[in-house]
Amino acid sequence: MSALRELAPAKINLGLTLGPLRDDGRHRLVTVMQPVALCDSLELVPAELGASEDQTLCPGVEGENLVDKAVAGFRAVSGWRGAPLRIEISKKIPVAAGMAGGSADAGAALRLLSRVSGIADEDVLMTVARDLGADVPGQLQPRRYLASGAGEELRALPEAAPFGVLVVPSERQLSTADVFAEADRLGLARSVAELESRQAELVGALAAGAAFAPTELLVNDLEPAAVSLAPELAWTLDEVRSAGADHALVCGSGPTVIGLFGDLDRARGAALALSGRTPAPFAVEPWYPTVMPSANSDGAASA
Ligand code: ATP
């Protein structure tokens, strides 16, 4: 078997509306998930001769990898009995940064497993993805989605015209669970009625392929919680606005801050203006599903 490769694009949230807790302990939410052309790359090869277990290699990430769970879940749900595999991950997406790096890798691993096993049953893949976490279903076939439920209910949105994203990573990591807990402490959740009306407004605003929704809909309800845990983010948001961003917001549960621009060149200019920061800010474009097929060495999309 020759090596199989997949790219795993990071996602940004173009706004996130937080709703109440569900019975399963997860929050209801509504968010626009936008993949961007910042990708981890995954390679699947047979495990070494004599190996009895699947292996995941992921330099830079400690502890159990979500890709291990994806492989185990895929074998359990599909019943596939193929020989042990090794998946090697080359990380480009910042870890614990609110850009769904682990979920993106799990989604890419499931695409690899589908290819190597010949099992393309969407129900199987979606069942495994849902079990892995609310962000994983949207990473099975990355594209622009309106996500609801706890993030696992997906409605495909028209892809947007190109725009630019300034990504400002942080030296610190924020646990998603801690940010949601802080949001609860601050009482940030909205009612189900507000959530549903926001969902309808977003669908309407983005139906014709606008790059982003109007300012009043482009709000991340988790932002005050992330800023409460990492107060320096308020300063970062100001810096991004001063660098000319049309919108500045915390990405997902943070601590990454993003700036949205009408085009990539303006986002690149802002990255240059903020280049004294560590880690260095950078500019990316949206990821489009039509440029999905292969990985190259620098983690950028290749047509
Ligand atoms: P999300 O927004 O989906 O909650 P995130 O983007 O903030 O997540 P990740 O980069 O997915 O965060 O990392 C969250 C935790 O998951 C890390 O602390 C890391 O230990 C663990 N993890 C497991 N597998 C991976 C992986 N393949 N890549 C990155 N982190 C992983």
Report on the architecture of this protein:
This protein has 303 residues and is of the alpha+beta class. The protein has a single domain, classed as Ribosomal Protein S5, domain 2 (2-Layer Sandwich). Helix content is 32%, strand content 25%. It has nine helices and twelve strands. Strands 1, 2, 3, 4, 5 and 6 form a six-stranded mixed β-sheet that branches. Bound molecules: adenosine-5'-triphosphate. Adenosine-5'-triphosphate (ATP) is lined by residues 58, 61, 63, 65-67, 89, 95-103, 105, 135, 176, 252-253.
Q: Can you summarize the main beta sheet?
A: 6 strands, mixed
Q: What is the succession of H and E elements? A: EEEHEHHHEEEHHHHEEHEEE
What's the gyration radius in Å? 19 Å
Can you tell me the CATH class? Alpha Beta
- List the ions, cofactors and other small molecules found in this model: adenosine-5'-triphosphate
Helical content band? 25-40%
CATH-scheme architecture: 2-Layer Sandwich
The overall number of domains is 1
Please give the oligomerization state of what you see: single chain
Structural class: alpha+beta
Please, how many helices? Answer: 9
**DSSP strand (E) fraction?**
25-35%
Rounded mean pLDDT is 93
Instruction: Pick out the low-confidence regions.
Output: 291-303
CATH topology: Ribosomal Protein S5, domain 2
How many strands? 12
Shape: globular
